[in-house]
Amino acid sequence: MFSNSTKYAIKAVLYLAVHSSEQHKIVINDIAEPINVPKAYLAKLLQELSRQSIISSTKGLKGGFYLSNKDRERNIKDIIDVIDGEDRLNSCLLSLKDCDSKNPCSLHHLAYSQKQIILDNFKSKSLNDLAMHLKSGKSVLPL
Amino acid sequence: MFSNSTKYAIKAVLYLAVHSSEQHKIVINDIAEPINVPKAYLAKLLQELSRQSIISSTKGLKGGFYLSNKDRERNIKDIIDVIDGEDRLNSCLLSLKDCDSKNPCSLHHLAYSQKQIILDNFKSKSLNDLAMHLKSGKSVLPL
DNA sequence: TTTAAATTATGACAAAAATCATATTTAGGA
DNA sequence: TCCTAAATATGATTTTTGTCATAATTTAAA
Ligand code: FES
Ligand code: FES
Question: Assuming Cys at both sites, which of A54, A62, A105, B139 could form a disulfide with A49, CB separation 3.0 to 4.6 Å?
């Protein structure tokens, strides 16, 4: 469903949502290790997310990555769009130019409406919501 | 969602479902061209599908690829499993070892039940069903 | 039984995704 | 001001995926 890159990015951002704050920035090593993602690769991904202002960062001593309060309003789809591109989730299952109920491919009616619901879910929950869910123990962040 | 390989494979099998029969086998060129897939690559994919007895083929003069009546009972998930592997559809969105409501990742409750419905849909319609749908003009096979 | 037309098997090559390495820039603290 | 710890920029390398080419095998028909 997602590329590894996006999975890595989501895990890292959720980790930041739970553990970081403006006052408590986290260094790349301390993100990569607990979520079990190759450090140098994750660095690249987080740099991209930072450039696209999905997450925040400061260089130098006492620097690191973190989520600002603004960042916490974002949702999962924002992350996917930055790393995998918007097409990943929007495009037709069989790569028709556009996925459209007027001109549906053979798989359209088997998946479209569910896919829309998933998309809506991805958009409707903020990172903050997901962090709270995690903190309350109702979900876990895989290794 | 799917790899290109799987998309190619699905398109080709659906093409065969609509246009081929035991009496009317179709040569790789005449499949690859209408569905707009690189011929040599498609050949490889169809050979794999044939090995896994998802589709049928005969060599030599008057040979080609086709779907037997048995083949037509298959479904989309069978194709995906052969080309992309079963994990593609079954695995957790964040690559937890196993996707399980007892130990859900942060995205589980946003997507799991819809994903199951899609999966069920992929399993419940036979290639024959999809071919009929196509023939009746209710769906199209993208370029 | 020979020939032509097809799949099958094999592998070389190219492009994209993932991984690793390192030099540069920035910011805080001594 | 200078040193150190951090992100950032850049790019090399590896692995996976997708693509292309071709020789070997099989089958039907002449
Ligand atoms: S047209 Fe293919 S999924 Fe909608
Ligand atoms: S546990 Fe991740 S999707 Fe189910």
Answer: A54
